[in-house]
């Protein structure tokens, strides 16, 4: 590609240079021939009677100089020269030209000469390129004037090839220009390629740095072509997202480590205390109950981690069916009736229509319902109230689980769906893993639906949407 560009530039510049030099050569030779005609015209004017318009002194020095000059022009240009006064008297080199090149003399067109002569006698200088006998020729004509009166004309006609010269004569200059053009093109292409490659090298080096685990590297976006700038911007965007992913991964590992270490440390401490006698025998049942609680907490954490891991796999699928969401909410209440009675809580079901059929994976949605209901029970004080609502709007069914409990602090509202985040950790220690809402959100994302925290004056309310079944 680079060589093709260099060759195209070289050919283009060489062609333009060849045409320019050839035109300059023709112009210079034609100007020289015109200059010779003017000199002969000047001499003829000095040797002409202004009153008679006749060439005088055929044998004087001026006329001899005219003949010498004409001979020299013939030798330089192989030209036919004609000097005419108004009486038709003439001086030409017809005999000499015919002896040297009879074909050229035979091809002279008397009509063309007459037309050019009329123009010159009219006071014009002419420089014409004429087709003579199938071959091109150049003709120049200059009037000779005395006291503002045109007394006669000088015509010089020669073959075009003498003026235009041989094509081969321009080959050395053209080659030199081509070499210079190639050098310039190669230099420009070199600097252009280097300017393009430098940003690419930066991107390559940054990619290698990222491969080594450093996701904070960035590349400049203000260098190179628009395409390179777009590539650099996309690379920085990718690096930023990878950096966020890596940060989340590290935070996830740190949170998992912390959440696992806490129950394990408690279990280990209690068991060692009972083994070495630090905890009296009569206290063993109490601490064994604590060990059981920590074991169940650890088991739930591991179960939630496995559930979240399975949900985030690319090949996870949904078993979508049509079912009554109202019936599912009733079953969830029945499953938690003991906890509700223990806290003397009231449950209010506000269903817009019966039944309310939706399309979704029933097992996954039940997991969401149970999790939201558990949270409502967990963070609502004794004697509180939980409200379950279903509303249908066109093709969407919205399910809301609300309570009149302690609510969520404003500064924590944006973090409730973060993994391992539990609001007011100091007051809720041991009550959850902080993964429940993350699991619920992931399930709703898989369904193409939403789960959101609603704004309420008291307590907490979560609402999620489902697709309404076609036969509902």
Provide the descriptors you would attach to this structure in a database record.
14 helices, rod-shaped, five-stranded antiparallel sheet, 3 domains, alpha+beta, 472 residues, seven-stranded mixed sheet
What does this structure look like?
- This protein is an alpha+beta fold and 472 residues long.
- It has three domains: 2-165, Beta-Lactamase (2-Layer Sandwich); 197-316, Signal transduction histidine kinase, dimerisation/phosphotransfer (DHp) domain (Helix Hairpins, Orthogonal Bundle), CATH 1.10.287.130; 318-468, Histidine kinase-like ATPase, C-terminal domain (Heat Shock Protein 90, 2-Layer Sandwich), CATH 3.30.565.10.
- It contains 14 helices and twelve strands.
- It has helices at residues 2-46, 61-77, 94-100, 102-106, 110-121, 160-164, 171-211, 226-275, 284-311, 325-335, 337-342, 362-378, 425-428, 436-446; strands spanning 80-85, 90-92, 126-132, 135-146, 149-159, 320-324, 346-351, 357-361, 385-393, 396-403, 451-453, 460-468.
- The strands form two sheets. Strands 6, 7, 8, 9, 10, 11 and 12 form a seven-stranded mixed beta sheet that branches. A five-stranded antiparallel beta sheet has the order 2-1-5-4-3, sandwiched between helices.
- Strand 9 and strand 10 form a beta hairpin.
- Helix 10 (325-335) crosses helix 12 (362-378) and helix 12 (362-378) runs antiparallel to helix 14 (436-446).
- The longest helix has 50 residues, at 226-275.
- The chain is rod-shaped, with a radius of gyration of 53 Å.
- It starts with a helix and ends with a strand.
- 22% of the residues are buried.
- The model is unreliable at 50-54 and 424-430 (pLDDT under 50).
């Amino acid at each position: 590609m680079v060589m093709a560009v260099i060759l195209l530039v070289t050919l283009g510049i060489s062609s333009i240079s060849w045409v320019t030099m050839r035109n300059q050569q023709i112009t210079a030779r034609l100007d020289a021939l015109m200059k010779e005609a003017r000199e002969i015209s000047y001499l003829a004017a000095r040797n002409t009677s202004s009153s008679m318009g006749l060439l005088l002194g055929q044998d004087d020095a001026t006329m001899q100089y005219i003949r010498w000059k004409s001979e020299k022009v013939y030798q330089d240009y192989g030209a036919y020269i004609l000097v005419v006064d108004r009486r038709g008297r003439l001086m030409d080199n017809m005999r000499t030209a015919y002896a040297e090149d009879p074909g050229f003399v035979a091809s002279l067109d008397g009509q063309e000469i007459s037309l050019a002569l009329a123009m010159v006698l009219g006071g014009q200088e002419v420089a014409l390129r004429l087709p003579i006998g199938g071959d091109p020729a150049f003709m120049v004509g200059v009037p000779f004037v005395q006291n503002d009166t045109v007394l006669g004309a000088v015509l010089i006609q020669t073959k075009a090839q003498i003026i235009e010269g041989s094509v081969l004569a321009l080959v050395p200059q053209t080659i030199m220009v081509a070499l210079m053009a190639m050098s310039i093109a190669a230099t420009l292409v070199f600097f252009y390629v280097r300017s393009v490659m430098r940003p690419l090298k930066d991107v390559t080096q940054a990619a290698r740095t990222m491969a080594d685990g450093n996701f904070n590297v960035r590349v400049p976006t203000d260098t190179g072509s628009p395409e390179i700038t777009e590539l650099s911007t996309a690379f920085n965007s990718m690096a930023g997202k990878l950096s966020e992913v890596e940060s989340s991964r590290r935070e996830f590992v740190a949170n998992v480590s912390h959440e696992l270490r806490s129950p394990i440390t408690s279990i280990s401490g209690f068991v060692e205390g009972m083994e070495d006698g630090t905890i009296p025998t009569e206290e063993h049942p109490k601490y064994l109950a604590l060990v059981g609680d920590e074991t169940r907490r650890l088991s739930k954490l591991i179960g939630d981690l496995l559930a979240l891991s399975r949900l985030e796999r690319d090949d996870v699928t949904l078993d979508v069916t049509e079912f009554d969401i109202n019936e599912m909410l009733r079953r969830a209440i029945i499953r938690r009736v003991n906890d509700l009675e223990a806290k003397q809580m009231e449950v209010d079901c506000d269903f817009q229509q019966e039944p309310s059929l939706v399309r979704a994976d029933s097992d996954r949605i039940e997991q969401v319902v149970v999790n939201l209901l558990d949270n409502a029970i967990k963070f609502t004080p004794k004697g509180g109230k939980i409200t379950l609502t279903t509303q249908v709007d066109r093709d969407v069914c919205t399910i809301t689980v609300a309570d009149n409990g302690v609510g969520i602090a404003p500064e924590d509202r944006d973090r409730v769906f973060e993994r391992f985040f539990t609001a007011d950790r100091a007051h809720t220690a041991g009550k959850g893993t902080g993964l429940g809402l993350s699991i619920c959100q992931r399930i709703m994302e898989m369904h193409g639906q939403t789960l959101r925290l609603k704004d309420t004056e008291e307590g907490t309310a979560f609402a999620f949407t489902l697709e309404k079944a076609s036969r509902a």
